[in-house]
Model the fold of this input.
Amino acid sequence: MNLVFTEDTKICELNKQFHEHYPYLKLQFYEDKIDLHSHQEAPGSPIKDENKTIHDILHGRVSGSISMNGHAKVKTFEHNWKEIAGLWVQVFRKSGNVWLQTTVTDDLSLADVNRFGEEMAKDVEKDALPDIHEQE
Done:
């Protein structure tokens, strides 16, 4: 399965497609910045407005697709975004009630990290306290 995009594709649309395939993962897109020490591009601030289009971010025409094959390593998937689309992307995994950056699990596949997120969600549901009104 591929995430297909054009210059008119919104960040929220990409996140929705990705999240439908991997319900315990999400994407965070970043603005580019220039690292003053190395003079290289580096991820800048997270893009908060998910209604921005690819064109809004890159200020140019671009289209393509990124494979989200479950066997692909997280770090390969993130690298492909920069190489193919020119966008900095970071995968986040659901852990209980929070989203964690997947830096520690970047060598695992997308499917494995998603499965890990699912297991963490089950642990939270299992350990959830009953609603206060149920105790009355």
In short: The first strand starts at residue 2 and ends at 5. The two ends are 49 Å apart (CA to CA).
